[in-house]
Amino acid sequence: MSKNSFYLGSEIGNASKMNSVLQVVGGVSLAALAEGLALADRAGLSQADLLDVLALTPLASPHLILKGRAMIESSYSTHQPLTHMQKDLKLALGLGDALEQSLPLTATTNEIFKHAKRLGYANHDVAAVYIRARF
């Protein structure tokens, strides 16, 4: 139970829709972080320095910093399975289709997570999406 509750309207399913929206934001953010870390590494920049700088910007969030450290350390003990994130992205794409809402970033992110699953990381933490971004 949470100490907060929100009235999301009288329509059944609004909480599920809200969850889909939040998963889109989280999934796209994680994929972007993984890609940024891979680019930093390829450019000869310290990934740890990238996270330190990120922590000082308005882009910082405890979740991104935590997952970024997990990506750098190749520590994928499961908090949120990658396969669950990919499933949630797929559900969000279905919601977008039903509402005729274009979700190009979500579609691309879904493909990135699907590829990470094919690489054998389905049951690892979502931070394992970094493995896909490196190559």
TrEMBL record:
InterPro entries registered for this protein in UniProt: 6-PGluconate_DH-like_C_sf, 6PGD_dom2, HIBADH-like_NADP-bd, HIBADH-related_NP60_sf
GO cellular component, as recorded: chromatin
Domain 3-hydroxyisobutyrate dehydrogenase-like NAD-binding: 13-130
Listed GO MF terms: DNA binding; NAD binding; nucleosome binding
Gene Ontology biological process terms, A to Z: transcription elongation-coupled chromatin remodeling
Protein name: 2-hydroxy-3-oxopropionate reductase
Family: Belongs to the HIBADH-related family. NP60 subfamily.
